[in-house]
C-alpha cells in the first residue's frame, strides 16, 4: 500500500471500527481509536482482539503504539484529526427503527472538542437509514457547533463480512462516499485513493440507501430460499438441498459468491441483516411507504425458528429425549451470537416442552453463555461429547466439522443447514 500522512480518529472499535482504524494505519495514517467499552480497550491495548476475526491479531500488533493509538483523550484526538469516523453500533430502536443514540453521543464528543478553524470531515460509517445525514446529522451539527462552517459531513457505508473483515476492507469492491460538499469529497478521495479501490461519490441519502439495498436484498434471498424450502417440505418427496445446488448450476449463478444466500437455512441472523431490514422497513413506513416485500421477508425470518422447532418436535414425538444443538454462532467462522437463530430455536424448543438441551459450538460457547445467561442449556466441550449425550442432533450453524456427525454413529440428525 502507498503511504500517506493523514490523521484519523475512529469512534467505536468493534468489527467495523477496528478494521477501519487498522486499515488506515496500514496506509500510513496516524489513527486514534476511541471506545467507551473499557474491557474492549484493555484487551486491544494488550494486543488481543476481543472477538474472533482472522488476521486482525497480527495487524493490531504491527500498528499498536505506532500508527494506531488507543486513546481516552478524545479532545486531543479530534483536534489533531482531519477525518473523524463513526463506527459505533446502531442497534434496534423503538418499533424496529435504528437507534442513533451512540452515534449522536460520539458526534457530541467530537463537537465539544472543535474550537478552531481547521476543516474536518465527520464521516458516518455506521449503518444509518436513508435521510439520516440530511435530516438529522447536518441540522444537528449546524445547530450545536459554532464552527459548523469548518465541518464537512459525509457517510461511507461499510460492506465487510464478519470473518473476512480485513480482506473485505482492504480489497473492497467499491468505496461509497455519501458526500455533498467539494472539500469533504476531495479529502475523502485523497484518503482512500492509495487503496486503489473504485470510489463512487453520491448524495448523502444515496450513500445510506446503497447499504440497505445490499442488506435487504441478501435478507430477501435468504427468506425466499427458506420459504421455498418450507413449500418443498409441504409438497413432500423433494430433495431440497439437491434442488438448490442444481439451481446454482445455472450459468447466471455459477461461480457466484451469492449462492450461499440462495440456500435454505435457519434464517438470517447476526448483527446486521435483522436490524437493518427492520430499520429500513420502519424508516420507509415513517415516510408513508409500506414496503410489502420486505414486510414478508421479515415475517418469514421471524417465523423460521418456530417452523424448525416444530420439525424437530415432530421427529422427537412424545419422547422427552435430549436435543443436541450443533452451532450457536449466527454463521460459521464467527463467534458473533447477536441475533443468532440458535437462541430462537432453543426458545421455541423449550416452548414445545423440550427442556433438556445440550449445545456445542467450536468457538462461540463463551459468547453465547455471556450474552444469554438466562437460556438454560448444557454445553458440551466437543462434537463427540454432544453426540454421546443427545438423542437427536440438530445442525444449526454450518461449521465444516459438523459434516463428520454421521460418521459418529446412527443417531438421527436434523440438518437445518442442508449441508450433509
Ligand atoms: N458487523 C458487521 O459485519 C458490519 C458490517 C457493515 C456495517 N456494520 C455497521 O457498522 C456499525 C458498527 O458495527 P460493529 O459490528 O462494528 O459494532 P460493534 O458492536 O462490534 O462495535 C461498536 C463499538 O462502538 C462502541 N461505542 C458505542 N458508543 C460509543 C461512543 N459514544 N464513543 C466511542 N465508542 C462507542 C462500542 O463500545 C463498541 O465497541 C453498525 O452500524 C453496523 O450496522 C457492521
| Count of spatially separate domains | 2
> How many helical elements?
15
Strand content: 5-15%
Low-confidence region ranges: none
Provide structural commentary.
This protein is 44% helix and 13% strand. The protein is of the alpha/beta class and 420 residues long. It has two domains: 196 residues, NAD(P)-binding Rossmann-like Domain (Rossmann fold, 3-Layer(aba) Sandwich); 205 residues, NAD(P)-binding Rossmann-like Domain (Rossmann fold). The protein has an eight-stranded mixed sheet with strand order 3-2-1-4-5-6-7-8, with helices on both faces. A five-stranded parallel sheet has the order 11-10-9-12-13, sandwiched between helices. Helix 14 links the parallel strand 10 and strand 11. The mean pLDDT is 96. The site of nicotinamide-adenine-dinucleotide has 26 residues, from helix 1 and helix 5.
Amino acid at each position: 500500500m502507498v503511504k500517506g500522512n493523514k490523521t484519523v480518529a475512529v469512534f467505536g472499535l468493534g468489527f467495523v471500527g477496528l478494521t477501519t482504524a487498522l486499515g488506515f494505519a496500514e496506509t500510513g495514517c496516524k489513527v486514534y481509536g476511541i471506545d467507551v467499552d473499557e474491557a474492549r480497550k484493555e484487551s486491544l491495548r494488550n494486543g488481543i482482539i476481543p472477538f474472533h476475526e482472522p488476521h486482525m491479531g497480527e495487524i493490531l500488533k504491527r500498528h499498536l503504539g505506532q500508527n494506531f493509538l488507543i486513546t481516552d483523550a478524545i479532545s486531543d484526538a479530534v483536534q489533531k484529526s482531519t477525518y473523524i469516523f463513526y463506527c459505533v453500533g446502531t442497534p434496534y430502536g423503538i418499533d424496529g427503527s435504528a437507534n442513533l443514540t451512540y452515534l449522536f453521543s460520539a458526534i457530541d464528543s467530537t463537537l465539544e472538542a472543535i474550537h478552531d478553524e481547521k476543516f474536518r470531515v465527520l464521516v458516518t460509517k455506521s449503518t444509518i437509514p436513508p435521510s439520516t445525514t440530511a435530516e438529522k446529522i447536518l441540522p444537528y451539527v449546524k445547530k450545536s457547533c459554532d464552527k459548523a462552517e469548518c465541518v464537512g459531513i459525509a457517510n461511507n457505508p461499510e460492506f465487510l463480512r464478519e470473518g473476512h473483515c480485513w480482506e473485505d476492507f482492504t480489497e473492497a469492491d467499491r468505496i461509497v462516499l455519501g458526500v455533498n460538499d467539494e472539500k469533504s469529497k476531495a479529502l475523502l478521495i485523497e484518503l482512500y485513493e492509495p487503496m486503489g479501490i473504485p470510489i463512487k461519490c453520491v448524495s448523502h441519502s444515496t450513500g445510506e440507501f446503497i447499504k440497505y439495498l445490499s442488506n435487504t436484498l441478501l435478507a430477501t434471498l435468504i427468506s425466499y430460499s427458506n420459504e421455498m424450502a418450507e413449500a418443498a417440505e409441504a409438497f413432500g418427496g423433494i430433495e431440497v438441498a439437491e434442488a438448490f445446488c442444481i439451481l446454482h448450476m445455472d450459468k447466471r449463478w455459477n461461480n457466484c459468491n451469492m449462492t450461499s444466500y440462495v440456500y435454505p437455512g435457519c434464517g438470517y441472523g447476526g448483527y446486521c441483516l435483522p436490524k437493518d431490514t427492520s430499520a429500513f422497513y420502519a424508516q420507509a413506513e415513517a415516510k408513508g411507504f409500506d414496503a410489502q416485500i420486505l414486510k414478508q421477508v421479515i415475517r418469514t425470518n421471524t417465523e423460521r425458528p418456530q417452523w424448525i422447532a416444530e420439525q424437530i418436535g415432530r421427529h422427537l414425538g412424545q419422547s422427552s429425549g435430549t436435543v443436541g444443538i450443533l452451532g450457536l454462532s449466527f454463521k460459521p467462522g464467527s463467534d458473533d451470537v447477536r441475533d443468532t437463530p440458535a437462541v430462537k430455536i432453543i426458545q421455541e424448543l423449550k416452548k414445545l416442552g423440550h427442556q433438556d438441551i445440550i449445545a456445542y459450538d467450536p468457538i462461540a460457547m463463551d459468547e453465547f453463555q455471556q450474552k444469554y445467561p438466562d437460556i438454560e442449556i448444557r454445553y458440551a466441550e466437543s462434537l463427540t461429547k454432544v453426540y454421546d449425550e443427545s438423542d437427536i442432533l440438530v445442525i444449526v450453524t454450518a461449521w465444516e466439522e459438523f459434516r463428520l456427525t454421521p460418521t459418529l454413529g446412527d443417531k438421527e440428525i436434523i440438518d437445518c443447514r442442508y449441508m450433509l
